[in-house]
Amino acid sequence: MFIKDVTEMLLELSRQDGLKKGLKEGLKEGDLNARREISMNLLELGLSTYIIAKASGLLEQDIHSLRDGPRRNEAV
Question: What does pTM read for this prediction?
Answer without folding.
Answer: 0.69
